[in-house]
Amino acid sequence: MTALSVNMGDGLDRKVKLAHTQFPNGGGWSFFVCPECGHRTRTLRLTEDGRLVCRRCDGLLYRCQHNDKETRIAHLRALLYGGPARHKPRWINIDRRRSLEGALRRLLIRERLERLERVRAAKKAISRLPPAISRLLS
Fold first, then answer.
1. Of 59, 58, 72, which Cα lies nearest the Cα of 104?
2. What is the rounded distance in angstroms from the CA atom of residue 75 to the CA atom of residue 32?
3. Does 120 lie in the same domain as 85?
4. What is each CA distance from 5 to 14, 49, 78, 94, in whole angstroms?
5. Long-range contacts of 2-10 (CB under 8 A, 24+ apart)
6. How confident is the model over 22-40, as pLDDT tens digits?
7. Is the distance from CB of 138 to CB of 126 less than 8 angstroms?
8. Which domain holds residue 92?
């Protein structure tokens, strides 16, 4: 089977292509093919305007729920220093400690670099001022 027809009600039929991956042991997986982008996916979503799309086309990608750096840093610090990340930690690799520490370190480096850029921009703006005013601000 390479395609199927989905009855949406109200006399609307949508044709959806299928893709199949076969394994050497004889098993396999079947996927829907997104009508918008051609991406193989296990689920298709029905949008408000009646289209069948994958989560990429619908804009529902998995994103971090912490939109700004400050809340993400606070969340990572709470996970790292507020107790184990798992309810029943077994050993350090499963506890995700190494990856959490890496993410926190990268965020802190980015924050430090942005702060340095702001300081450099301020110094550059001060250097453009007349000498009498720049001496007062230094």
1. 72
2. 37
3. yes
4. 6, 18, 49, 44
5. 6/52, 8/46, 8/50
6. 999 989 999 999 888 888 9
7. yes
8. 74-128
Per residue in 48-101, pLDDT (tens digit) is 777 888 888 877 655 556 667 888 888 888 877 776 555 666 655 556 778 888
Residue 11 — φ and ψ, nearest 5°?
A: 75, 10
Tokens describing residue 110: 């980015």
Strand order in the sheet with 28-33: 3-9, 12-22, 28-33, 40-41
Q: What does the alpha-carbon distance between residue 12 and residue 82 come to, in Å, rounded to a whole number?
A: 53
Domain count of the chain? 2
Q: d(Cα 7, Cα 45) in Å, to the nearest integer?
A: 14
User: Pick the residue with more confidence: 96 or 102?
Assistant: 102
* Closest to 103 measured CA to CA, from 82, 81, 78, 72: 72
**Rounded to an integer, what distance in angstroms lies between the CA atom of residue 88 and that of residue 9?**
48
3-state secondary structure of 39: coil
How many residues are given for the chain? 138
7 and 39 both lie in a single domain? yes
